[in-house]
Amino acid sequence: MTYKTHIIGGVALAIAINEYLIPIEGIELVYYYGSAIVGSLLPDLDHPKSWISSKTVILHYPFRKLGHRKATHSLFAAILLWAVLTLPFGINFLALGSLLGYLSHLILDILNPTGVPLLYPFTKEKYKIGKIHTGDTGEYIVTVLLIIISVVMIRI
Q: Binning pLDDT at 50, 70 and 90, where does residue 97 land?
């Protein structure tokens, strides 16, 4: 998936949680959705040509040797991110947004035939449920559906 689809997916999941499970209001919404956007891009820090790697060369450096869709594309990495963001401050909207964005990235990449190693480092098996290639018509359809679903979920 492209970075744009990952951003839309992260925001869509954040909208769902905010509208139906954990309401967040005021200025916290800006940080919540902002962190969902950042979280939706973080797994691709391991890819040298990803959008986030091109914008954050220093952050990309330690992850580049891991290889794409390995450690950063796992539930273990998502839990580690959650721990890093909650241990110092407790559960907070930045951690929640980041985690939701991160998880949405993994969910979307499962739709790609390459799959993702969800249970890495315990197993390197890649899980996949789709055949949607990056940038193809299938990704466009997923993106449009995510936008429509997001708009429908928002309670004004």
A: very high
Please name the amino acid found at residue 153: M
* Alpha carbon distances (Å) from 106 to 24, 90, 111, 151: 24, 24, 9, 22
At 107-155, the pLDDT tens digits run: 999 999 999 999 999 999 999 999 999 999 999 999 999 999 999 999 7
Domain count, the chain: 1
Closest CA to 98 of 13, 23, 38, 9: 38
Domain that holds residue 117: 3-153
Answer left, alpha or beta for residue 69, where phi above 0 means left and psi between -120 and 50 means alpha: left
Cα 96 to the center of its chain, rounded Å: 12
